[in-house]
């Protein structure tokens, strides 16, 4: 029983030490995990800045392109044949503008490219039968109500929010999503003589979205979604890899989503914040998928874009995908931790068993020695008692001997006295 008790005590002590070390390791590991998670979140959030900068840079180019086209002498000459050849060259060279239209001050079409960016013929006859004076872009240019920010040097171009372009659809025979950049055509004296509008396909900003997705995919975020919203919270880019197979990066132009799905009205907080010009991040429920995702969002306020457009970028991914490597590390850590604890307990048990056996032997040896010492002590005590008794007896004998000697001495003294008396009497007898 004593041996078992000793074993238990040693095992409990070692288990306590292992538990304390284990708890400390877990606490430190969890702190490292939280730091790593925060780092991944910050890295994920930085992609909003990348998209903001890249889209703004493309916007800046498109904003200036239409003004550069407008001041070209060929266009200012308003000669249809020369203009068409010139516009075809621009369409193919830039690869962005599906249509480039030139109208007079009454909204009549003067010229339009008849070659697409991929060098294919376009059906443009119907375009010449229409008048464009009631188009928003025409009215804005004629009234000089441009999309501007003079503090950033952005003046003189009217920008339409992305949408399905009916003018482009009439030429290409299919719905095409894009935006437009329009400005005035002026003569040498600075007088407005017409309007030019570049009907840019959505690829001018979608290419930047695809590049960002590829970057995220390389980091393991294959499910990352990238969304662009207008100032009202309407979706105009809905890049979701779930819509694409593994070999495509196409951005789906769903007419039921683009320009119609308002995430702010759906109650998605990131969209509501973007409408208010706020940025942030956090975990939110997807409006359509009803799954929880990490979302990072930011208004596009780069110096190369007009902030009054109110565009915002929203990127999302699931927690499991974002923290996949961390979760794998946690699994390995806890597996190895459990193995280490079990191994330590086994070793502790063996050590406690060995130590208890050795201590038991030491205790037995000490017990034997103690018994022997006690036995010898008893013997010594017995001998001491016997010796004391002998001494007492000897002392008694000595006392008796002393008494005898005293009696003998007394007798001798008496005999001596008697001898003296006899001697005295003898002396007196002799004298008489």
Your description of this structure?
By secondary structure, this protein is α+β, with helices and mostly antiparallel strands. The chain contains nine helices and ten strands. Strand 8 (280-285) and strand 9 form a beta hairpin.
Radius of gyration equals 55 Å
Number of helices: 9
Shape from CA axes?
Answer: rod-shaped
Query: What summary fits the major beta sheet?
Result: 5 strands, antiparallel
Summing up helix and strand content along with how strands pair, one would put the structural category as alpha+beta
Salient structural properties:
10 strands; alpha+beta; 432 residues
Question: How is the secondary structure organized here?
Answer:
Elements: H1 2-70, H2 73-76, H3 80-94, E1 97-103, E2 109-112, H4 136-142, E3 158-164, H5 166-172, E4 177-186, E5 192-201, H6 203-218, E6 225-229, E7 235-239, H7 269-275, E8 280-285, E9 292-299, E10 312-317, H8 319-322, H9 324-431
Antiparallel strand pairs: 1-2, 1-5, 3-4, 4-5, 6-7, 6-10, 8-9, 9-10
Helix pairs in contact: 1-6, 1-9
């Amino acid at each position: 029983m004593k041996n078992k008790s000793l074993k238990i005590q040693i095992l409990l002590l070692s288990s306590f030490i292992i538990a304390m070390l284990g708890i400390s390791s877990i606490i430190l590991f969890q702190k490292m995990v939280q730091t790593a998670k925060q780092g991944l979140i910050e890295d994920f959030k930085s992609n909003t800045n990348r998209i903001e900068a890249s889209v703004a840079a493309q916007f800046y180019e498109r904003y200036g392109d239409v003004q550069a086209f407008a001041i070209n002498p060929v266009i200012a000459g308003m000669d249809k044949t020369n203009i068409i050849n010139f516009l075809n060259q621009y369409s193919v060279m830039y690869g962005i503008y599906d249509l480039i239209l030139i109208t007079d001050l009454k909204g009549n079409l003067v010229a339009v490219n008849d070659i697409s960016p991929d060098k294919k013929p376009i059906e443009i006859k119907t375009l010449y039968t229409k008048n464009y004076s009631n188009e928003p872009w025409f009215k804005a240019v004629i009234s000089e109500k441009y999309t501007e920010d003079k503090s950033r040097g952005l003046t003189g171009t009217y920008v339409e929010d992305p949408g399905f372009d009916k003018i482009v659809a009439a030429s290409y025979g299919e719905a095409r999503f894009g935006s437009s950049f329009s400005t005035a055509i002026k003569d040498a004296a600075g007088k407005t003589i017409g309007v030019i509008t570049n009907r840019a396909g959505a690829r001018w900003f979608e290419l930047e979205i695809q590049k960002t997705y590829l970057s995220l995919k390389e980091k393991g975020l294959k499910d990352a979604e990238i969304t662009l919203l207008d100032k009202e919270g309407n979706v105009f880019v809905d890049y979701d890899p779930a819509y694409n197979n593994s070999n495509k990066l196409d951005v789906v132009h769903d007419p039921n989503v683009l320009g119609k799905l308002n995430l702010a009205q759906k109650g998605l907080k990131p969209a509501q914040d973007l409408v208010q010009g706020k940025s942030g991040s956090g975990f939110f429920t997807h409006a359509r998928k009803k799954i929880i995702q990490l979302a990072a969002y930011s208004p596009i306020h780069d110096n190369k874009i007009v902030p009054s457009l109110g565009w915002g970028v929203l990127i999302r991914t699931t927690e499991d995908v974002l923290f996949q490597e961390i979760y794998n590390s946690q699994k390995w850590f806890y597996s190895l931790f459990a193995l280490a604890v079990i191994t330590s307990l086994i070793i502790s048990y063996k050590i406690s068993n060995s130590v208890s056996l050795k201590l038991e032997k030491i205790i037995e040896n000490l017990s034997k020695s103690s018994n022997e010492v006690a036995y010898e002590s008893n013997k010594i005590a017995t001998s001491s008692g016997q010796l004391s008794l002998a001494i007492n007896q000897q002392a008694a004998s000595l006392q008796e001997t002393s008494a005898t000697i005293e009696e003998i001495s007394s007798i001798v003294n008496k005999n001596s006295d008697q001898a003296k008396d006899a001697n005295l009497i003898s002396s007196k007898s002799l004298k008489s």
